[in-house]
Design a protein that fits this description.
Elements: E1 2-6, E2 10-15, E3 18-23, H1 32-37, E4 46-50, H2 61-75, E5 80-82, E6 88-89, H3 100-109, E7 116-120, E8 125-129, H4 141-147, E9 150-151, E10 166-169, E11 172-175, H5 184-190, H6 211-220, H7 226-256, E12 265-268, H8 272-279, E13 282-283, H9 285-288, H10 295-309
Parallel strand pairs: 1-4, 4-5, 7-12, 12-13
Antiparallel strand pairs: 1-2, 2-3, 5-6, 7-8, 8-9, 10-11
Helix pairs in contact: 3-10, 5-6, 5-7, 6-7
Length: 310
């Protein structure tokens, strides 16, 4: 059996041989079918979870669910899909929308009771108290946004204007223009939080993933060339963005789990290292290895195997 997590930007696959993450943006006619067909040699069984149904290429979540189910079924006709009711389905039902966080919680619940799972991905941050499935079943993304369980900020894909509206350039308060000139991947690359190889998504301008290219994109958010504000000015923009993102995440953790001890915070996702620094928690990579970067894909495979064996 393999586990599959179909996100809007990334397709993650868990197999007995390891974890595989493909940048596969659904809004750009992603080759999801072709990518998954490469894994048919690993077996005929697949357990699937999704969040990509929200991509704006679909007119509704229902359309997105149908597209994903059909695409997966072309590679794995007998695939089973995990839903927000914590059940597996063989049809495109509404419960399949954005259930990836729940399967991670179910997988970890018994091992880490009472802990907070904080999963910082490329696009969003999930905060999940592992206190039983009853209080989590049926929650939609809207519910989670309202409760603070879903924080729409990520390591790579968050636009700069979603983080800050104003920055200091040479001591002068300067508005940030609301254009998609730069994103959090540029911020974290400039601050050395990620490497060029870890900049795994498309750049806003279609240009390089090197530090100078990132600095140029950051300068553009204040309507400037890099030569106008210098590397120091662009670096100041990156620093302001990270300070805002850091505060956003820390505030959300305090809201969801006030007073939780640092030792009870479990950090996962591609931004687990940064999260552990913010919260004092520990990364699941130390115990789970690389699967922590693609936890829902691994979790849905494990939960399906557990259900089959029970």
């Amino acid at each position: 059996m393999i586990g599959i997590d179909v996100g809007g930007a990334n397709l993650k696959v868990a197999t007995a041989d390891g974890i595989f993450i493909h940048y596969c943006p659904l809004w750009q006619e992603s080759p999801i079918r072709e990518v998954l067909c490469r894994y048919r040699s690993r077996g005929n069984e697949a357990a699937v979870v999704m969040s990509g149904e929200l991509a704006d290429c679909f007119s509704s979540k229902a359309e997105g669910i149908r597209f994903i189910v059909d695409a997966v079924r072309e590679a794995f006709p007998d695939a089973q899909f995990y839903g927000t009711d914590a059940a597996f389905h063989d049809a495109a039902v509404p419960e399949l929308a954005a259930a990836n966080w729940l399967v991670s919680a179910e997988y970890l619940m018994d091992r880490y009771p009472g802990c907070l799972l904080a999963d910082l991905g490329s696009t969003t941050t999930d905060l999940i108290l592992l206190e039983g499935l009853e209080g989590l079943r049926g929650l939609t993304d809207l519910d989670r946004l309202q409760r603070g369980y879903l924080v729409y900020t990520g390591l790579l894909r968050t636009p700069v204007p979603a983080l800050v509206r104003e920055v200091l350039i040479r001591g002068v308060p300067t508005p940030v223009c609301p254009e998609f000139f730069a994103m959090s991947a540029d911020v974290h690359l400039v601050l050395s939080h990620i490497t060029e190889e870890e900049y795994t998504v498309a750049t806003p301008d279609g240009k390089g993933k090197d530090r100078i290219s990132a600095l140029r994109r950051l300068a553009r958010v204040v309507c400037a060339d890099l030569e106008e504000i210098g590397e120091e000015g662009a670096y100041a923009i990156a620093r302001a963005c990270w300070e805002a993102q850091r505060e956003l995440i820390v505030h959300a953790v305090r809201r969801v789990a006030p007073g939780i001890p640092a030792g009870k915070v479990l950090c996962a996702g591609v931004g687990a290292g940064l999260l552990s620094g913010l919260t004092g928690g520990h990364t699941l990579a130390g115990e789970l290895g690389p699967v922590a970067d693609a936890l829902p894909a691994y979790a849905v495979m494990e939960v399906a195997a557990r259900r089959r064996g029970s």
